[in-house]
Amino acid sequence: MALTGVRVIELAGLAPAPFCGMILADFGARVIRVDRTKVAMTVDTQARGKQSVALNLKSPKAVAVLKRLCVQSDVVLEPYRKGVMEKMGLGPEDLLKENPRLIYARLTGYGQSGSYARAAGHDINYLAMSGLLSMLGRSSDKPYAPLNLVADFAGGGLMCAFGIVLALLERSRSGQGQIIDASMVEGAAYVGSFMWKSRSLGLWNRLRGENMLDSGAPFYDTYRTSDGKYVAVGAIEPQFYAELVRGLGLDDADLPSQMSVSDWLQLRQTFTRVFATKTQAEWGRIFDGTDACVTPVLSLDEVLSHPHNQARGSFFKDSQGEISPRPAPILSRSPAEACRSRDPFIGEHTRAVLKEYGFEQAQIEQLLSAGIIECNEAKARL
Ligand SMILES: C[C@H](CCC[C@H](C)C(=O)SCCNC(=O)CCNC(=O)[C@H](O)C(C)(C)COP(=O)(O)OP(=O)(O)OC[C@H]1O[C@@H](n2cnc3c(N)ncnc32)[C@H](O)[C@@H]1OP(=O)(O)O)[C@H]1CC[C@H]2[C@@H]3[C@H](O)C[C@@H]4C[C@H](O)CC[C@]4(C)[C@H]3C[C@H](O)[C@]12C
Questions:
Q1: How far is residue 96's CA from residue 74's CA, in Å, rounded to a whole number?
Q2: In this structure, are residues 338 and 48 in contact, taking their beta carbons and an 8 Å threshold?
Q3: N or C: which end of the chain has fewer CB within 10 A?
Q4: Would the CB of 122 count as within 6 Å of ligand 1?
Q5: Counting Cβ atoms within 10 Å, is residue 17 exposed (0-12), middle (13-18) or buried (19+)?
């Protein structure tokens, strides 16, 4: 796999850093997540393919253990508020001094500088600060965040993984590590570059929810079908729009022009009425194989059995029977291989990892009896 041989220490976080770590693991990196001790269960639902080491970082001895792990690794991924790592003596300057090849990735909401750098926040705050939230929502309604997809995962976890891969690539030339300051505000905004760059096209001149791509246009929206399901319509170009109208059994001559914005309300009413006359599957039989850009709105459970997804193996079931998306994109020679076994228990790999990183058996036992580390291999064997 593309990242085979890369060793990553991931400090346990909430959502974006775990996703970043999972991407790296899917593409072959060895990802060791550092968990707290004395917690019943992890909140990391993106733990696929990772190992878990449990350390009580309130103890200086655990901090020393973590330091040893970090300086013998390729990447450190930390999701804490600015200053937390420095307080423990594990800031990038300290670690890069000991391992100049280290890539030190800091994944935060607001970045490492600026007046918000130390503030708490979540996806919705970062999205708001990126400017993008102001554009998301239906006409005459308040802004709505599209789950926590944009800042946490696209602008945060994925963008940070991209930064890590870039730094690894650059290190292969320079031999030097570096610090990655991944701000979710900036990552989200960067993902949304199109919104700024396309303003000159007039795509966003109207109010929120009244533009072509933000549910303002009747040919770019979802419609309810007679069985209570939905279809998505994205028939923008005239030739695709013509196929939509044909598939709906309408006559173009009876309809207002596609791009007549003042007629969009009337056109939407017509489409709504017609889509409600057939089931989602019936519309599928009409539109599949055409260029009308009409697809079913599938639920998370339905994706697995759709013939297109099935043909490509786009989703899979792991050993616990859970459906997951296959890692993307597909590399022809060294594709990702998502681990299919269960997620690690907290501390399941503490002993094995510490041994591998050069700790003596006696040292490990001392740390264990002092409550500085936690080992849970037994739980894993039950
Ligand atoms: C699914 C829910 C998650 C939702 C995601 C949400 C929408 C997001 O947007 S996530 C993005 C959050 N932002 C960031 O990550 C930006 C960068 N980070 C931060 O800004 C901050 O870390 C923070 C604001 C997120 C949190 O601040 P906090 O003050 O808590 O922490 P920090 O200042 O960063 O300091 C960290 C301190 O921790 C110490 N530490 C670290 N490691 C260790 C260790 N190994 N040992 C000891 N100590 C350690 C470190 O030293 C720092 O200490 P100091 O402060 O003293 O310096 C989920 C959100 C909540 C979940 C639910 C909840 O947990 C309850 C249940 C739990 C149960 O187990 C499962 C079900 C739950 C209902 C659970 C369900 C879900 O998982 C959640 C809803």
A1: 11
A2: yes
A3: C
A4: yes
A5: buried
Q: 15: Cβ below 6 Å to ligand 1?
A: yes
For the sheet with 178-183, list strands across it: 178-183, 103-108, 75-78, 7-11, 30-35, 51-55, 373-374
Token pair 């909430």 is found at 14
pLDDT at 381 > cutoff 70:
no
Query: Using omega within 30 degrees of 0 as the cis cutoff, is the peptide bond preceding 329 cis?
Result: yes
Q: Average pLDDT, stretch 259-269?
A: 97
pLDDT in tens, 79-104: 999 999 999 999 999 999 999 999 99
Q: Is 16 in the pocket of ligand 1 (CB under 6 A)?
A: yes
Token duo for residue 312: 């490509």
- The ipTM value here is 0.96
**Helix axes 184-191 and 159-174, enclosed angle (nearest 10):** 100
Long-range contacts formed by 255-260: CB under 8 A, 24+ apart? 258/219
Asked whether the beta carbons of 62 and 55 are under 8 A apart, the reply is yes
Q: Which of 311, 320, 305, 325 is nearest to 149 (CA)?
A: 325
Count of H helices and E strands in the chain?
A: 15, 12
Instruction: Assess contact for 65 and 100: CB atoms under 8 A.
Output: no
List the residue whose alpha carbon is closest to atom 67 of ligand 1.
43
Cβ(118) to ligand 1 under 6 A? no
38 Cα–ligand 1 center, Å:
15
Cβ-based neighbours of 14, under 8 Å, separated by 6 or more: 43, 79
